[in-house]
Amino acid sequence: MRTWGIYSQWDSGSKQLPKIVQVTTRVPAEVDIEFGFVVNVKGAKNQELEYCIDHPGILDDAGNRRDPFRGTVYVKTNDWDFFLGDTIWNPVDDKLGEWRLTLEMNGAAIAEKSFDVVLPTNQDSPNVTPNGSTT
């Protein structure tokens, strides 16, 4: 794992990964805060990675807890950086608590990190701008 914590906002359509703003596992529950981790995968081109973002209880429109977000991605090169993360959106109440992000290849965990999303305090807020700078 290269970095983890709070990042600049990420454009999933871009080849550029978000920039690390603050290394932390404590994330203020502020709309548009991006958090997660970046891993570097070597020698695994075309291998399938499975990811899971297990959230604390995000609710669907009917008020039911959503399943963890799961998916797959294929390693694009033999020296590949990959960002796994999420962002906070309204309502923030169901985003509070522990988020566990895992990445597996061939059934074995290659990266995992837990983040605690909390109500923001003046000490927690990095005031991240979309380009990754802080204010």
Explain what this protein looks like in three dimensions.
By secondary structure, the chain is mainly β. The chain has one domain: Immunoglobulin-like. Helices cover 0% and strands 46% of the residues. The chain has no helices and nine strands. The strands form two sheets. It has a five-stranded mixed β-sheet, with no helix packed on it. A hairpin with a 2-residue loop joins strand 8 and strand 9. It is globular and about 40 Å long. The model has no long low-confidence stretch (mean pLDDT 90).
What's the helical proportion of residues? under 10%
**What is the strand tally?**
9
Percent of sequence in beta strands: over 45%
Order of adjacent strands in the largest pleated sheet: 3-9-8-5-6
Mean pLDDT: 90
Rg computed from alpha carbons, rounded to a whole number of angstroms: 15 Å
User: Strand-and-helix sequence, N→C?
Assistant: EEEEEEEEE
Question: Largest sheet, if any?
Answer: 5 strands, mixed
Shape: globular
* Unreliable stretches covering 5 or more consecutive residues: none
CATH class: Mainly Beta
Number of helices: 0
Number of domains: 1
